[in-house]
Design brief:
The protein has helices at residues 15-39, 73-85, 97-103, 111-120, 149-156, 172-184, 208-220, 230-254, 256-260, 262-283, 297-305, 308-322, 329-346, 353-378, 384-397, 403-414, 419-425, 431-439, 441-461, 465-474, 502-522, 527-535, 543-552, 572-588, 595-611, 622-639; strands spanning 61-62, 67-70, 89-93, 133-135, 168-170, 189-193, 198-200. It is mainly α. It folds into three domains: 15-45 and 226-414, no CATH class; 80-184, no CATH class; 419-639, Hypothetical protein af1432 (Orthogonal Bundle), CATH 1.10.3210. The strands form three sheets. Strands 4-3-5 form a three-stranded mixed β-sheet. Helix 10 packs parallel to helix 12, helix 11 packs antiparallel against helix 12 (308-322) and helix 19 (441-461) crosses helix 26. The chain is rod-shaped, with a radius of gyration of 43 Å. The two termini are 57 Å apart.
């Protein structure tokens, strides 16, 4: 089954199967929603991107609440420095002159002077008179007239050996603790902005004052506090629910095969959810921008396993889902959408590392131009802050260089096949195709022609051309088991079927289906390719041996042995390969390959398949079938070099 064609495998699936699909989707969506919900940054989100000197392009910004204007780091450091440089000094007071005089051998005539000096104040060193001076009990003191031992010696001619005990000594512990108390009480804000105040008007320039106010408002949106109201949480949950409901309806309408395959749905939901969760987790880190998340990987992975259309839709709805929860949302969506779009354009058909490296750097150039255009529109100055988003998005782009091992990991984890694997399988030098060319060269040439025919038709009506080509190349590998029993491999006029009964011949012809499935499993071909082996004959009959047997047994109506086991094609791609196989084989057998004969044979083959209901399970319209029919006619005419007959001139 192929989730790439975006169509349902059955035209009329029963209600139980539909219910089962919706139930499984609901369970997966609930898990994904829970993961996304718990990843949403808590608290309110500041949604504006601004830089010093830029033009404010948003509507007038009004303060949604009261908030304080906090001081900048530079202002706080300046205030700290001022307090340190102008700190208060605290002193202990000691009156010890009596004790000192009693023990000192000093002229008694100096006793009165010494006592006077001691009362006036003696300090070990000159005090810092530009600071406020206190006693440890908090009493303000004035030491402007205090002596020092050296000044007394100089002024009164005292002997240098005479050292007066200090009246005041600096209490360093009290001085330091008083300073620390003031530093702890240093205010971190410088004002208040009331709710309803216009912070900045549309079209105004973000000057330093407005920048500081915007910064203060952003800080008031504290993401680290889980203070969201119940209404905010309910709104977030409802929004996520609506996103997954929208995804469900889109998949049901356009890509129902994704819903029908659990492996495809698991891969799709994992990719979508992982992109959302990583973006939200980075958004919750204040120092990192969500632009660092390589969201462009999401459309690349979706495109590799499904289709361009689904990849673009998924990328778009993911950005819409993230919009309410990320800051600088305008820049975020613009850059991420541009990255995803240019990536889908450039990564198409990239299967070599050199091409991938070249495309990655081309994407980086485009992102630089996008950032530059946003910067010029806002007329902001180039600063380190303005360069950070550029660095984040360019860094995230480099993850594309690891896309090959990542796709391999997804293939092995989810059991879904990518275009890279299909391209490897479609290489005619692959082991199984080389074996086919060696053991059944006629069948190999037939499959090459069927592949070209099917790819040509698929390009016209739409579908996965790489899948169609790969499936067509392998659809007949079962003929390797008995190549001589198929006409394209017979070189002599004698057929080995002449020695067999019609039932035995039919059994061998029909058996190439099961032989092919067993061989494909042995070589570990993916199921999506094996489906082309199962379905390329549908439930049709081995017509030649059926008619021969019927001629010999006109009285019996038991002809089940001549029918292929099926199933019928269940996708547009498998239906096209069935048509191509029958048309190529039947037109090759026409002896006289005129335009009319070829056209009639193509009409006959496709008409027979329609009448026997071989396309009933494939989501393919009559308009597409008729378009394919005409495409086959043009292609076959070119193969056999048939010219259109023009009427003779009169």
């Amino acid at each position: 089954m192929d989730p790439r064609n975006g169509k349902n495998n059955m035209k009329a699936p029963n209600w139980f199967r539909i219910s089962e699909q919706w139930l499984y989707y609901s369970l997966i969506a609930m898990v994904a929603s829970a993961l996304i919900y718990i990843s949403i940054p808590s608290g309110a989100q500041f949604k504006y991107d601004y830089r010093l000197g830029q033009i404010w392009l948003e509507e007038d910004l009004v303060a949604p609440q009261d908030f304080v204007l906090q001081k900048s780091d530079e202002e706080l450091e300046s205030d700290r420095k001022f307090l340190i440089e102008n700190k208060d000094f605290y002193y202990d007071y000691h009156y010890r002159v009596d004790e000192w005089l009693a023990n000192a051998n000093i002229d008694s005539s100096l006793h009165g002077e010494l006592e006077l000096w001691q009362k006036r104040g003696v300090v070990p060193n000159n005090p810092a008179l530009n600071h406020r001076l206190y006693l440890v009990d908090g009493t303000r003191i004035d030491l402007s007239g205090a002596w020092t031992p050296s000044s007394l010696v100089a002024n009164y001619g005292l002997p240098e050996a005479l050292v007066l005990p200090p009246t005041y000594s600096l209490n360093e512990s009290k001085t330091d603790s008083a300073l620390q108390a003031k530093l702890a009480l240093l205010p971190t804000n410088k004002g208040m902005v009331a709710q309803g105040t216009i912070i900045i008007a549309q079209g105004a320039t973000v000057n330093e004052q407005k920048y500081e106010t915007l910064k203060a408002l952003e800080r008031s949106y504290d993401r680290t506090q889980s203070d969201s109201s119940i209404y905010s949480k309910l709104g977030s949950a409802l929004y996520i629910l609506l996103i997954f409901i929208g995804l469900a309806f889109f998949l049901r309408l356009h890509y129902n095969a994704v819903l029908a395959h659990s492996s495809s749905l698991n891969l799709y939901m994992f990719t979508f959810t992982a992109g959302m969760v990583f973006a939200l987790l980075l958004e919750s880190i204040n120092s990192v921008s969500a632009l660092a998340v390589p969201l462009l990987m999401v459309p690349v992975i979706i495109r590799s396993f499904f289709s361009d259309r689904l990849a673009l839709f998924t990328h778009t709805i993911m950005l819409v889902a993230l919009l309410p929860f990320v800051s600088s949302s305008v820049q975020f969506v613009t850059v991420q959408f541009s990255a995803g779009l240019i990536t889908l354009f450039l990564i198409r058909g990239i299967y070599k590392r050199s091409q991938l490296v070249q495309s990655t750097f081309q994407i980086m150039v485009v992102l630089l131009l996008v950032h530059l255009s946003i910067h010029l529109i806002r007329e902001s100055d180039w600063t380190t802050q303005s360069l950070l988003p550029v660095a984040y998005s360019l860094g995230g782009t480099l993850i594309l260089l690891f896309i090959f091992p990542l796709i391999y990991f997804f293939e092995r984890t989810f059991g879904v096949v990518s275009d890279l694997t299909l391209l490897e399988l479609s290489d005619t030098n692959s082991p199984l195709l080389k074996l086919l060319s060696k053991e059944a060269p006629g069948t190999f040439q037939h499959t090459m022609q069927v592949a070209n025919l099917a790819e040509f038709a698929t390009e016209i009506v739409g579908g996965n051309t790489l899948l169609v080509r790969t499936g067509a190349l392998y659809h007949d590998i079962g003929k390797i088991a008995n190549p001589q029993y198929f006409t394209e491999n017979q070189s002599s006029t004698t057929s080995p079927h002449e020695e067999l009964s019609y039932l035995e011949s039919a059994e061998i012809i029909i058996g190439h289906i099961n032989d092919g499935i067993e061989l494909a499993k042995k070589y570990k071909l993916p199921d999506i390719v094996i489906d082309f082996i199962r379905t390329h004959h549908g439930t049709s009959r081995v017509e030649y041996f059926y008619r021969k047997y019927k001629e010999d047994h006109p009285d019996t109506d038991q002809f089940d042995q001549f029918h292929y086991p099926g199933p019928k094609p269940f996708s547009k791609e498998t239906a096209i390969v069935m048509m191509s196989d029958a048309v190529e084989a039947s037109t090759r057998s026409i002896p006289d390959k005129t335009e009319q004969n070829l056209s009639e044979m193509i009409d006959k083959v496709i008409g027979h398949q329609l009448s026997t209901g071989q396309y009933d399970n494939a989501e393919i319209t009559m308009k597409e079938i008729n378009t394919i029919r005409e495409a086959f006619k043009r292609f076959i005419r070119g193969v056999y070099h048939v010219r259109i007959s023009y009427p003779e001139a009169e």
